[in-house]
Specification:
By secondary structure, the chain is of the alpha+beta class. It has three helices and two strands. The chain has one domain: 3-Layer(aba) Sandwich (Rossmann fold).
């Protein structure tokens, strides 16, 4: 999301009591960022370029095991 980091979205939603799985799609490939994202509550972290078949499988997997 231009102008806002995914972890900022997660934090804002948490402050508002919104519980919704957030999949971060990003070009950032830094291990510390990945770990921080999961610690903040990200449901998944997908690096760009995104393979749509993989993304669909990840979303479907999350829906099965929520």
């Amino acid at each position: 999301m231009p102008g806002m980091l995914g972890t900022e979205v997660i934090a804002a939603w948490q402050r508002q009591g919104i519980e919704f799985p957030v999949f971060l799609l990003t070009a950032i490939d830094d291990v510390d960022t990945v770990v921080h994202s999961f610690e903040m509550g990200a449901a998944d972290y997908v690096r760009k370029p995104v393979n749509m078949a993989e993304l669909t499988a990840r979303i479907n997997g999350r829906l099965r095991f929520k």
